[in-house]
Amino acid sequence: MKIVLASNNQGKLVELQALFAPLGFDIIAQGQLFQGEAEEPFDTFVENALAKARFAAHHTGLPAIADDAGLCVDAFGGLPGVQTAYYCTQFGYPKSNDNNVQALLEQMQHIDQRGAYMVSTLVGVRSAADPEPLIAVGKVRVEIARQRQGNNGFGFDPVLIVPELGCTFAELSEATKNQYSHRGRSSRQMVELVAQYWAAA
């Protein structure tokens, strides 16, 4: 079965392809099939992920899975949340992963409460009008490092310390990261849901 990933993020694509490979599903980035991206006007991860999944299914006629993920920092009352990808722009930086990390380090420079969690909400639809989307949520507790550590991964990985491992996601191998990460957790849930509800269809 072919499933469209409602994202053009190469990091997400590689992670999800690896996680879905055992089921024999072919995950294809939407950018390989059509141009354009869905609006994400909502305040929750699940609503934005659903909008993206329906958009991709509508444009391709294929089942679609969308991920909306973000960083929720305790000291910021759970922000940036759904605005994580644009976090740095409020501080005058152009949008980029590197600038997001830089802005976060600057904003937390004098903050000792460094707890946070990453959220990944995956939503799957069989069609644009699917009345019963599959929803999987993965969360992982992290501590914000005071400087970048490691060269692997993407996004905020260089400053997200996994407390039980004592190192950042950027210091982990891909396989170990997938075991602990928010997206790894939500993806394993989604794999089980797809196997249970879609594979026999």
Please tag this protein with its features.
201 residues; seven-stranded mixed beta sheet; globular; ITPase-like_fam; ribonucleoside triphosphate phosphatase activity; dITP/XTP pyrophosphatase
Please give a quick description of this structure.
This protein is of the alpha/beta class.
What does the model show?
With 201 residues, the chain is α/β, with parallel strands linked by helices. It has a single domain, classed as Maf protein. The protein is 30% helix and 22% strand. It contains five helices and seven strands, in the order βαβαβαββββαα. The chain has a seven-stranded mixed β-sheet with strand order 2-1-3-4-5-6-7. It is globular, with a radius of gyration of 17 Å. The N and C termini lie close together (10 Å). The mean pLDDT is 92.
Q: Terminal Cα separation, in Å?
A: 10 Å
Please write the string of helix (H) and strand (E) elements: EHEHEHEEEEHH
CATH class: Alpha Beta
Residue windows where pLDDT falls under 50 for at least 5 positions: none
Secondary-structure blueprint:
Layout: E1 2-5, H1 10-20, E2 26-29, H2 45-60, E3 64-73, H3 97-107, E4 115-125, E5 134-144, E6 160-162, E7 167-168, H4 174-180, H5 182-197
Parallel strand pairs: 1-2, 1-3
Antiparallel strand pairs: 3-4, 4-5, 5-6, 6-7
